[in-house]
Each structure stands twice: as C-alpha cells, then as structure tokens.
Specification:
A hairpin with a 2-residue loop joins strand 1 and strand 2. With 71 residues, this protein is α+β, with helices and mostly antiparallel strands. It has two helices and four strands, in the order ββαβαβ. The chain starts with 7 loop residues before the first strand and ends with a strand. 15% of the residues are buried. Strands 3-2-1-4 form a four-stranded mixed sheet, covered by helices on one side.
Length: 71
C-alpha cells in the first residue's frame, strides 16, 4: 500500500486502533504527540484509538499531508 502511495500518510486499521509505521510514524509521533508502541528502533510504530481518526487526520491535512485510511 505504501509503495504506491509514498507521498501520503497511511493509517492501517487493526481492530479498534489505527496504526502507523516507519517514516509515517516519525511524522505522526511529532505532529500528533503519539507514544511509540515498541522500543525496537528498527520497527517504528505508533497508533491511536479509532475514535480519534477524524481529529488526527485533520491535523495531518492541516499540515499539508495527504492521508489514506486502510480499513
């Protein structure tokens, strides 16, 4: 998914959470003040509850990022 949408932040829905990986996770960690999900630096990963999707997507869009949601 990311390889064909390299210019977008990709939010993957897993259960009741949206999870973000690698470079997208770095951006979301900074802009959305999200905590790292794992301590392994090779697997950068952040996430948030599904109820926050619109709020966080708006922040990303307002900062000139495109957002793609994978349900």
């Amino acid at each position: 998914m990311k390889s064909v949408n390299y210019d977008s932040i990709v939010l993957f829905k897993l259960g009741k959470f949206y999870e973000i990986f690698y470079e997208d996770a770095i951006i979301c960690h900074r802009l959305l003040d999200l905590n790292w999900m794992q301590t392994n630096p090779q697997k950068l990963h952040v996430g948030f509850p599904e109820k926050n999707r619109e709020k966080f997507a708006k922040i990303l869009v307002d900062n000139h990022y495109r957002v793609i949601v994978v349900e």
